[in-house]
């Protein structure tokens, strides 16, 4: 089976020190911790097989969300490289780029184009998107009046309708109420069946066991274990 | 919806910042983002005047008021017109080009910081944001250009068709320089918020150091009368925006082809060496600006 995503020796560093104006830069240049860096990821490598679901497991601060951002392209690595399909949808931040003054319907077109889908293609699935979001009643209301749940639901509905080869999911299952969560899970299962590849970030071992074909555990920015879900979950649980 | 996924599309390789994949690759990515660009332009235009009664009409009101002030107060009360024919059109042409320049650069400089939520969450060619600023400024330029045509009608005086050729080098300079500056300033502004204020001051300076409210001849004559004047003249003429404004005036100010107006001509032909050298320099500048942008854009996202 071919490889759809390859993460090759990816490292990412952040500076601990941070300044916003040029004056601060000049005056604080000699501060003690000015050049201190924090290594969020160190030489992380793995491959995701085409059509499989891959789990990224780790505690808070292990670097898994940073890694997902690098795969999506929002962050660049400090070194190393990532190869992934152009057609990728990231369910990292639902409703990113919504324009508050525009209606839900207008935002569907705007958001879809941000995610790389043409107006014509969006036209074809707009009814499905509205239907899935379950907010037909308010679709012509400006999104600034939406509740946070409605916001996330519309964002989710748009992202999964962009017909992606690869889906990046970050703690998605915390979105919305129980019925909507169930709907999301169904949808993710359906996408698995359709042969799409998924990378799932979580700190919940049940999610990994139930959904994933293989996984990796990150700890302090390094790969602790990778392979089949059983051994990975065992390694994760063995973490102190 | 889409059902079974049977074909596999192209892949993208994401590398460390500074190890960019090259300007042609980046340009190709940018050209492939037409849908996004038009959606963002629509968002800017719709969002800017949302809830206002006049909407896009506000684009016209500011330059019309400025035109009034400069033509009547500056031109006549202060006597800056010095008997120049159709001074109002002269000023309006200069303002038309200057507004395109200043609006695209000032909006472009804050385009990354203003779209922080988008940049932190979604991947797309980052050049789209400064380019959107330029495109929005171009739309306003065209709307204001319609007012200029009204002015031609009103004065019943039209520019010569042959002179319109000056618009070609003007456009070929204004796009790379304004877009290039937006690229550089937009990433720098993420790092140092001072940038946007420096840009404001720079644009103020640029406005008065471009022959907009006065013809180049006035600056030329003054500089000719002081020591080192010829050097200062050359320095003045290094300002690409000044050249753009002058080319615009030569194209669109009707009296330029009359005997009285010919004294205000600067370029002897649309093929002027100075113009085309400037075109060349502008595109080299855009290339360098894009390299800086590509190097910094990936890393500055953390600072947003």
Descriptive account of the structure:
The complex is a heterodimer of chains A (240) and B (304). Chain A has a single domain (3-237), classed as P-loop containing nucleotide triphosphate hydrolases (Rossmann fold), CATH 3.40.50. Chain A contains 8 helices and 9 strands. Chain A has helices at 22-27, 64-72, 104-114, 119-133, 148-160, 178-193, 205-211, 229-237; strands at residues 3-15, 37-49, 53-58, 79-85, 88-91, 166-170, 197-202, 214-219, 222-228. In chain A, strand 6 (166-170), helix 6 (178-193) and strand 7 form a beta-alpha-beta unit. Chain A is globular and about 55 Å long. The relative contact order of chain A is 0.18. The model of chain A has no long low-confidence stretch (mean pLDDT 83). By secondary structure, chain B is an all-alpha fold. Chain B has one domain (23-303). Chains A and B meet through helix 1, helix 2, strand 4, helix 3 and helix 4 of A and strand 1, helix 2 and helix 6 of B. Strand 4 (79-85) of chain A pairs antiparallel with strand 1 (11-15) of chain B.
